[in-house]
Design brief:
The structure holds two protein chains of two kinds.
Chain A (H helix, E strand, L loop, with lengths): L2 H6 L1 H6 L4 H13 L1 H17 L8 H13 L11 H5 L2 H19 L4 H31 L3 H23 L6
Helix pairs in contact in A: 3-4, 7-8, 8-9
Chain B lengths: L1 H17 L2 H17 L7 H23 L3 H11 L13 H11 L4 H12 L4 H8 L3 H24 L1
Helix pairs in contact in B: 1-2, 1-3, 1-6, 2-3, 6-8, 7-8
The chains are: A mainly alpha, B mainly alpha.
Chain lengths: 175, 161
């Protein structure tokens, strides 16, 4: 038996799980090889020494461990996003900003004449609407009669139709 | 209750793995934080202990690789310069021999060291170690034998002094 083979069997010899013929071979080798014999003695001694390395945690470690549970942050439940949060994501904001920039560009410059006319018409309609609304609320405030609400609705409808008719008829002023 | 039942084993494994009380305490803390966060996943004790030992092993080996990578290079110098850290355990083995044995343990490959600690210090059976670390029993035995042989060789030089 070679030294290497013998050393591989040390664990079996210690555990007493070697078949008798192998045990005999190994014991013969240990008697003949002083190096392996010394190593095996150390091996045996080591086992008893290692058993003494078991250690207890100091009290401060136990206190620290017992406090972990108290110190753990509570996991926050995930809240559902409301409509505002969904709408106010970065892409919606970016598109809105781009629209505002374009509308300003079309309104204040004439780089694209149809858009410029459209913007001016739109703004004129908005101004007219604001004036009407202002007048209406003044009247409602003075009279306290909510029948004006119906009248305003009808007037507004008629005016809008008039405005859109005017837009169709209007032709671009060339050059 | 959990701390009382499991802290000793985890601390002992980590302390013998690093030979450093502060690191052992840190490892214990990491393991228990992970344990408390995953407590609802365990129903039976067997899986729980296996999980605990696997987590302890991972933390020990990761920490070793991160912070003790160059340990071998400095160890010779440290052995000459640093005083032996006295430990309060009692037994037939002198404090000096115990400290020396712990330092020799550090020279083993981390995987071999961990498995040796489980068998010879924590006294788990081969079957338990195999089940808990999910490796074949034959592999467990061969690793333990290799670790013991390496440690015996290291101790021969000490005893010859």
């Amino acid at each position: 038996m070679k030294c290497e083979e013998a050393r591989e069997l040390f664990i079996e010899l210690i555990d007493n799980s070697l078949p008798p013929f192998m045990r005999k071979d190994l014991e013969n080798h240990l008697t003949a090889c002083a190096q392996c014999q010394q190593l095996f003695e150390n091996y045996q001694q080591l086992l008893s020494e290692l058993g003494e390395l078991k250690s207890e945690p100091p009290f401060w470690v136990k206190i620290k461990l017992n406090n972990i549970f108290l110190q753990l942050p509570e996991e926050k439940p995930q809240r559902k996003k409301n409509v505002f949060q969904i709408l106010m994501n970065k892409w919606v904001v970016a598109v809105a900003a781009m629209l505002i920039v374009l509308m300003n560009l079309f309104y204040f410059t004439n780089i694209f004449p149809p858009a410029n006319r459209g913007m001016r018409t739109l703004l004129a309609s908005a101004e007219a609407l604001i004036c009407k609304a202002e007048g209406f609320f003044e009247q409602v405030k003075d009279s306290g009669n909510f029948i004006w609400l119906t009248i305003f609705g009808k007037t507004l409808f008629a005016e809008n139709r008039f405005q859109s008719d005017k837009n169709i008829d209007r032709r671009p002023q060339g050059g | 209750m959990l701390v009382e039942n499991y802290s000793r084993a985890i601390y002992s494994v980590a302390y013998n793995f690093f030979n450093d009380r502060d690191t052992a305490a840190d490892i214990c803390q990491e393991v228990f934080i992970k344990l408390f966060r995953n407590l609802d996943k365990f129903n039976d004790g067997e899986n729980f202990t296996a999980w605990l030992l696997a987590v302890t092993r991972n933390y020990c080996i990761d920490h070793w690789r991160k912070h003790y990578k160059n340990y071998e290079q400095h160890q010779e110098l440290d052995e000459k310069l640093l005083p032996v850290k006295e430990t309060p355990e009692e037994g037939a083995l002198s404090a000096d021999n115990r400290a020396y044995l712990r330092r020799m343990l550090l020279k083993l490959d981390p995987d071999l060291r961990y498995i040796l600690i489980l068998r010879d210090i924590e006294e788990l059976s081969y079957a338990e170690i195999a089940r808990k670390l999910q490796i074949p029993e034959g592999t467990v035995k061969s690793r333990i034998n290799r670790a013991r042989l390496r440690l015996s060789e290291l101790m021969v030089s000490r005893r010859a002094e």
